[in-house]
Write a structure and sequence with these properties.
The complex is a heterodimer of chains A (288) and B (446). Chain A is of the alpha+beta class and 288 residues long. Chain A is built from eight helices and nine strands. Chain A is 26% helix and 12% strand. Chain B is of the alpha/beta class and 446 residues long. In chain B, helix 11 crosses helix 14. Classes of the chains: A alpha+beta (288), B alpha/beta (446).
Chain lengths: 288, 446
């Protein structure tokens, strides 16, 4: 008898809970597009947020919903974009490669230090100590916070302690933009090849005492540029990328090489008139 | 935390660094000479930079208004010397950026009389008129933070201030400016307190003085005018006793809440030198164009307390005071909360309470070792934070967690944790860096 009671109680309970589960499954079912999982699998799983969505899953949802073309993922390559577009039967969308660009060329071979910084080896920390040891107030401190923060190994400090962006690896996630205490990084489409690699707002040749490749605000690039492409603002040339800018003409007369042409093959190209820098070793410290 | 030895009130935790005040505390304040060129930055305070109201080539009189406040959180600037405006351009600032500044070349043969303005009459002026006068006089917190005083004195409407605390603690080693001001300008302090009591509506004021200046406190106590509700309280010698939260804790036993202001516990605190300047300038309608600083430290030859024109380049001041051969590092402020300077080309500003110079022997830093969780820093932190945990999080870049779970933004960077750390971990520097990143992120998010 006791045995029967036990079996009946457990059996009854099982039946009750099972029917509850069945009801819950019916009533609370969430309709989800199964393609989201597939698209998410095709994405690179970087979760970098460069697309503007919090991660790869929300981006996949947006792609499936048709809110954004797959080409917007800056980490994936053309092949990956194509695969997603073919799977969903939609257009790839514009695939403008965006990369991080550094607005400083002051490596240790051309830019002086005004003080020896011996604290915590980080740019953000060094910038707290009255701006760090660099003689130029705007220049790269060279402690490599950007190199450490980059999840894609796209930034490498060169032999002059200046970060170099590997554009093939850069996904424009913006982590380097955020961490740099001097705000030297910004995100640009790769076809922005006319580039001002300086942020020094001082005027005149006096700036050359701090850095040999600084902009002296001579204004020649602005004069040589076709119709308003470059204007001088705060003693620096500012390129208006909304105008046609595929011309290397403005860099030719730059005396220091502060404005450069970032060639797809040849890399950084300086103007014909710019002073040649042959030095490899570090410059001595600026007099204090 | 009961102790039979404790005679004076204080706060819990804190440290006891060498005070190092004996060299300069008995030296009277001396007038500093004029530099060949003065550099007056338009931003010497927290808030918006002032707007220049002079042109290049214009001649100005000492004490004349040269820049007007731009908005409420901004103060005026006055000419530190009679001379000609050489140019208005960029000048290096202490925050490591270039900012706009007015360059003044003083006239060599001028008598350097200070221009008189419209006096602010204590009895006739209303509280708001006094606030305007304080802003117009360009007064900021002279203890070092350079926060505009009139903003600090603007009490929220829902609060009633019951105590005005005058901060004469000066716990930073080597600095003796507040000490000398209390010895030499007691009447200015009392006049300043009259203005401050009227502005804040507080019925009484307490001057807090550290026990190493007990004789100054006694002299002040004797000098208090009979009609002024001012008491002088001596607090224990401990760092950072001069932080306003610590002083309020010691004097009144009240705790300013996390992220709050002294007005949340019905208190306003004002630095004693700021109070003295209010008392010295407002009755004459003058603006602040010089301040008292201590030039000290082992690498200085002529140590002393000086009344120095604002805008004097640091290099000129150091050369006047004389440097030892083996000088290796100059701090703006004292060694605990001051900043090591990468360049001597910055000017003395309103927030400069002094500078200290050290030789190689004192500044050679031993290397950093891993944290051994000894918790010395936990016992030192006056705000009861956990610097050890914060330091580990900072090292691994978990800045958001530091702010959200471990109250990073409450830290006021007194340096007690770094001071006691046996592993020589630069804790405060890491916290500063973390705070910068967190603030940047939050600003970008909002």
């Amino acid at each position: 008898m006791e045995l029967l009671t036990a079996v009946a109680a457990i059996g009854g309970l099982t039946f009750l809970l099972a029917s509850l589960l069945i009801v819950a499954n019916r009533r609370l079912y969430v309709e989800e597009d199964l393609r989201i999982d597939v698209v998410e699998e095709m994405l690179p799983h970087a979760n970098c947020g460069a697309c503007g969505y919090p991660g790869c899953r929300p981006f996949a949802e947006a792609v499936v919903a048709g809110l954004v073309p797959p080409g917007k993922c800056s980490v994936s390559n053309a092949e990956g974009h194509r695969a997603i577009a073919d799977y969903l039967g939609i257009a790839v969308g514009e695939q403008v490669k965006i990369v991080a660009r550094l607005a400083c060329a002051g490596g240790s071979n051309v830019a002086r230090q005004r003080a020896h910084y011996s604290g915590s080896a980080s740019c953000v920390a060094a910038a707290q100590v009255a701006g760090g040891g660099k003689a130029c107030f705007w220049g790269c401190l060279g402690h490599g916070d950007c190199e450490r923060v980059c999840d894609f190994d796209a930034i490498r400090m060169d032999s002059h302690d200046l970060p170099v962006v590997d554009t093939t690896k850069c996904t424009a996630c913006g982590d380097c933009v955020e961490i740099c205490p001097k705000d030297l990084f910004s995100l640009h489409p790769e076809n922005h090849r006319l580039w001002v690699a300086c942020k020094n707002q001082e005027e005149g040749d006096g700036v050359l005492a701090a850095c040999e490749v600084a902009c002296t605000a001579c204004g020649r690039c602005a004069m040589d540029a076709p119709g308003g492409l470059i204007v001088m603002r705060d003693n620096l040339p500012v390129v208006d990328y909304s105008r046609p800018h595929a011309t290397a003409e403005p860099i030719q007369r730059c005396p220091t090489g502060a404005i450069v042409w970032l060639d797809a093959q040849a890399g950084v190209v300086k103007g014909a008139a710019s002073k040649k820098i042959l030095r490899h070793g570090a410059l001595p410290d600026a007099p204090t | 935390m009961f102790s039979l030895r404790r005679q004076h009130p204080s706060f819990a935790h804190g440290i006891h660094p060498p005070e190092a005040k004996d060299d300069t505390k008995d030296l009277p304040i001396k007038q500093f000479p004029f530099a060949p060129v003065m550099i007056v930055p338009l931003q010497q305070h927290i808030g918006k930079p002032a707007l220049a109201v002079v042109r290049e080539g214009q001649e100005v009189e000492r004490g004349q208004l040269i820049a007007a406040p731009d908005g409420f959180v901004s103060v005026a600037m006055h000419a530190p010397a009679s001379g000609v405006i050489q140019r208005i351009g960029l000048a290096p600032a202490i925050n490591g950026k270039m900012g706009p500044a007015i360059y003044i070349k003083p006239f060599a043969g001028s008598s350097q009389e200070v221009a008189e303005g419209t006096p602010c009459d204590l009895d006739a002026a209303s509280a708001d008129e006094i606030l305007l006068a304080i802003q117009g006089a360009g007064i900021v917190g002279l203890g070092g933070a350079a926060f505009p005083t009139h903003v600090k004195l603007k009490v929220p409407e829902d609060r009633t201030i019951d105590t005005l605390v005058i901060n004469g603690v000066e716990c930073e080693p080597y600095l003796t400016t507040d000490h000398r001001v209390m010895v030499e300008q007691p009447q200015d302090i009392f006049t300043g307190i009259r203005y401050l009591l009227k502005v804040t509506g507080a019925p009484r004021a307490i001057i807090g003085v550290e026990a190493n200046k007990a004789e100054v406190a006694a002299a002040l106590r004797d000098a208090v005018p009979a009609d002024l509700p001012v008491s002088v309280a001596v607090v224990a010698v401990k760092y950072p006793q001069g932080a306003e939260k610590m002083l309020i804790r010691a004097l009144l036993g009240r705790e300013v809440p996390s992220g709050g202001l002294p007005s949340d516990v019905d208190v306003v605190t004002v630095n004693v030198a700021t109070t003295a300047e209010i008392g010295r300038l407002l009755p004459h309608g003058r603006g602040i164009q010089e301040r008292v600083i201590t030039i000290g430290g082992p690498a200085i030859r002529k140590k002393g307390n000086y009344r120095i024109p604002i805008g004097t380049p640091l290099r000129f001041a150091l050369e006047y005071a004389g440097m030892e051969e083996n000088l290796s590092r100059v701090f703006l402020g004292g060694p605990m909360m001051g900043q090591a300077l990468p360049s001597l080309d910055i000017p003395i500003t309103k927030g400069t309470s002094g500078f200290t110079a050290f030789t190689t022997a004192q500044t050679s830093a031993p290397g950093e070792y891993p944290c051994i969780h000894c918790a010395y820093c936990v016992d030192a932190c006056p705000l009861f934070l956990n610097p050890s945990q914060l330091g580990l999080l900072a090292k691994s870049g978990q800045y958001e967690r530091m702010a959200d779970e471990f109250h990073l933004l409450d830290c006021f960077e007194c340096g007690s944790c770094s001071y006691v750390c046996p592993a020589h971990i630069p804790l405060v520097q890491r916290f500063r860096a973390a705070k910068t990143v967190v603030r940047k992120r939050r600003a970008a998010a909002s």
